[in-house]
């Protein structure tokens, strides 16, 4: 999963995005001939319009202010049945500012899975104006997200990000919650099997054709790297220049994508703890790395005994590791200080202090505990459960957690049950997972200490895409490294990305960037 630091306001807007660009269409016109099933989609006329839908549509207002135009592209619900039901995919476009040197369309996907992407066209233009000069920048809300046709199960919580806790009783509580959430999606059975990366990659190709492009360029982050790799596998002849930032292990996509994260989250937490120890005078969390980590464990144990009161919210052992997960993956001075401030508040609460207000914590807690907006959480789970098969034995998740409890005591109960609703999901994937194995050129960038798409998985993507090259920020504990996706960009990475997207030049071999710390 992914929570970026593009900007707090934009992140909040993304989480709050809602609505849909039209309900599921019952049917569409029949194809004109036996080989023309997709032709009517690929040849559709795109009608561009203002982006803001209503006064509450902050993302639309942001897009309009940036000069973007928006549209809805009609695609088959099931691409193997182009004469069947259809759905809408919402897109945005900023046309190349130097049309005389325009070289094509560049589609951006921020990952998630399930993060809306329309807002990333102006974000990329602001971050990389040289790319905006040469490319039409295309943002996309993948099917069932944002302003596209929604999957909205009306979940009572914003997202399913919960630890199962320290014992079987805690696991039982979270499993019951996961079963309830899955049951709420039963009314979406027609849509759920078709939420996968394979379906979205096919939508991307319809968008490419409808835009009149012979090939497509792409910048994808986190889960968006897997989506890009699936497109490369399905449509190799239509790939122009693809950049994959913080690559997901292509063999891990689906319900098990988070299982390997625990040790890498622990390593990132330890790195932060070293920083906090050097600032003990301010935060009073411990004067050594070990003492800071002991404070973290003490807070977790206190939350397990009695939920900590943070304003109107409660932090128990199911939520506390999720707070850490949402904070780790950013290793700037500002991000480390924010996590230390939050831990200081939680530590005070664990010692019995009354915390009446903590805005930085309350925002994240409200997201986790408030009813979902626009189906954001259920859409993420729908995509995850559609990307691959899941064990239907909930006990298998508990046995996995128990087998790793000694070496992953804090994060194992979170990451190894991250997608537990898939065990109860009311629909099965329409297709098997895509096997990624090709020699189509691509540029892969990432950080060696990434806690959310761990480096061994990034290397697995590099091996699967044998025509690719990889640029690694050595010694960095951040998730996402290119300028559009992070508040702490790396000039070495951005030089490589720009050289490839603008000039088509890949590094001669895999390279590393020194990763000078900002802290």
Give the C-alpha Rg.
22 Å
Residue share in helix = 25-40%
- State the secondary-structure class: alpha/beta
List unreliable stretches of 5+ residues: 1-35
- String of helices and strands: HHHEEEHHEHHEHEHHHEEHHHHHHEHEHE
Regarding quaternary structure, what we see is: single chain
- How many H/I helices? 19
Mean pLDDT: 92
How much of the sequence lies in strands comes to 5-15%
Report how far the terminal alpha carbons are from each other.
25 Å
Keywords:
519 residues; alpha/beta; 9-stranded mixed beta sheet; two-stranded antiparallel ribbon; 19 helices; 39% helix; globular; disordered N terminus
Give an overview in words:
- The structure is a single chain.
- The chain is an alpha/beta fold.
- Helix content is 39%, strand content 12%.
- Strands 1-2-4-3-5-6-9-10-11 form a nine-stranded mixed sheet, with helices on both faces. A two-stranded antiparallel sheet has the order 7-8.
- β5, α8 and β6 form a beta-alpha-beta unit.
- α7 packs across α8.
- The model is unreliable at 1-35 (pLDDT under 50).
Summarize the structure.
Helices cover 39% and strands 12% of the residues. The protein has 19 helices and eleven strands.
């Amino acid at each position: 999963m992914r929570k970026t630091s593009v900007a707090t306001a934009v992140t909040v807007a993304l989480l709050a995005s809602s609505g849909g660009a039209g309900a599921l269409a019952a049917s569409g016109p029949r194809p004109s001939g036996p080989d023309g099933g997709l032709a009517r989609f690929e040849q559709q006329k795109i009608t561009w319009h203002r982006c803001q839908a209503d006064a509450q549509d902050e993302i639309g207002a942001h897009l309009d202010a940036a000069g973007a135009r928006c549209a809805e592209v009609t695609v088959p619900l099931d691409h193997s049945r182009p004469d069947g039901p259809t759905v809408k995919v919402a897109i945005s476009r900023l046309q190349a500012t130097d049309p005389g040197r325009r070289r094509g369309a560049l589609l951006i996907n921020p990952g998630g899975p399930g993060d809306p992407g329309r807002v990333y066209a102006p974000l990329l233009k602001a971050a990389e104006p040289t790319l905006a000069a040469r490319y039409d920048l295309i943002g996309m809300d993948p099917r069932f997200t944002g302003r596209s046709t929604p999957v909205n199960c009306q979940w009572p919580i914003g997202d399913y990000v919960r630890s199962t806790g320290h014992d079987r009783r805690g696991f039982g509580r979270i499993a019951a919650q996961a079963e309830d959430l899955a049951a709420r999606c039963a009314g979406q059975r027609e849509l759920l099997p078709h939420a996968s990366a394979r379906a979205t990659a096919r939508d991307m190709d319809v968008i490419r054709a409808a835009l009149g492009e012979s090939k497509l360029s792409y910048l994808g982050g986190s889960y968006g790297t897997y989506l890009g790799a699936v497109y490369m596998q399905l449509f190799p002849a239509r790939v122009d220049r693809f950049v994959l930032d913080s690559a997901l292990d292509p063999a891990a996509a689906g319900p098990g994508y988070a299982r390997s994260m625990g040790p890498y989250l622990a390593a990132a937490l330890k790195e932060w703890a070293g920083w906090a120890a050097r600032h003990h005078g301010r935060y009073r969390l411990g004067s050594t790395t070990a003492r800071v980590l002991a404070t973290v464990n003490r807070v977790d144990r206190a939350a397990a005994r009695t939920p900590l009161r943070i304003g109107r919210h409660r932090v128990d052992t199911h939520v506390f590791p999720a707070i850490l997960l949402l904070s780790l993956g950013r290793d700037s001075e500002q991000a480390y200080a924010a996590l230390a401030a939050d831990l200081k508040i939680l530590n005070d609460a664990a010692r019995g202090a009354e915390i009446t207000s903590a805005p930085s914590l309350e925002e994240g807690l409200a997201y986790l505990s408030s009813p979902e907006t626009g189906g954001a959480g259920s859409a993420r789970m729908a995509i995850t459960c559609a990307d691959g098969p899941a064990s239907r034995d909930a006990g298998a998740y508990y046995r996995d957690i128990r087998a790793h409890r000694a070496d992953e005591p804090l994060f194992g109960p979170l990451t190894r049950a991250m997608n537990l609703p898939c065990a109860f999901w009311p629909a099965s994937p329409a297709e098997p997972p895509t096997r990624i194995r090709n020699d189509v050129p691509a540029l892969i960038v990432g950080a060696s200490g990434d806690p959310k798409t761990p480096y061994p998985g990034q290397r697995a993507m590099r091996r699967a895409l044998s025509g690719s090259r990889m640029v690694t920020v050595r010694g960095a504990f951040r998730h996402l490294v290119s300028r559009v996706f992070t508040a702490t960009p790396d000039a070495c990475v951005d030089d490589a990305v720009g050289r490839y997207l603008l000039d088509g030049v890949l590094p001669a071999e895999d390279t590393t960037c020194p990763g000078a710390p900002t802290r």
